[in-house]
Structures are given as C-alpha cells and as structure tokens.
Design goal:
The protein is an all-alpha fold and 95 residues long. It has a domain at 52-95. It is 57% helix and 0% strand.
Length: 95
C-alpha cells in the first residue's frame, strides 16, 4: 500500500504571534473612543427605565411582534363583545 500511496509530510505551520499586538486591548480602546462622555469627562449612562424591554422588543423577530399584536387585538375584540352583550342584557331586562 505504501508503494502506491507514499506518505507525504505536510509542511510545518507558521505560528507567529506579534509581541506588541493585543487584539482585545485594541478593541477595548476603540469602544472607549465611541462611548459617550458628559461634560466632566465621565461616561454617560445610556440605561433608563425600560431600556432593556425596548432593546428586547427591537431585537425580537418580526413574527413574534405580529403574534403579540394579534393577541392584543383578540383580547380587545373579546372585551368589546362582552361589553356589547352586557349592554344587550341590561336593555332586555328593562322591558
């Protein structure tokens, strides 16, 4: 078998890592540059009441938003029907 398919060694890989380059440190520095600062040089918080919910709803898939809206419409329609039937029952009991 070795006559038909001789073993061919792969060339050695090149495992060079730069000495003075830290990718994570570079990314942190870029993020710090883009952060908002206030007049005192401190960081402004972008968190406010309801910000987690807003970001969750913004990142929610379209079909889940549509499902939530249709569910709300369903309950509003049920409530309207109940009020209508309650009004009819009160009118029938008057006669």
């Amino acid at each position: 078998m070795s006559i038909l398919f001789p073993k061919i060694n792969k060339p050695r890989g090149w495992d060079y890592r730069p000495i003075y380059y830290d990718k994570e440190k570079e990314e942190r520095a870029e993020r710090r540059k883009t952060m908002k600062t206030d007049e005192n040089g401190g960081y402004k918080t972008t968190l406010h009441r309801g910000s987690f919910r807003e970001s969750h709803e913004a990142n929610m898939p379209q079909n889940m938003r549509a499902r939530r809206a249709s569910r709300l419409g369903f309950w509003v329609a049920i409530l309207a029907l109940l009020l209508f039937f309650a009004y009819l029952l009160t009118q029938m009991s008057v006669y």
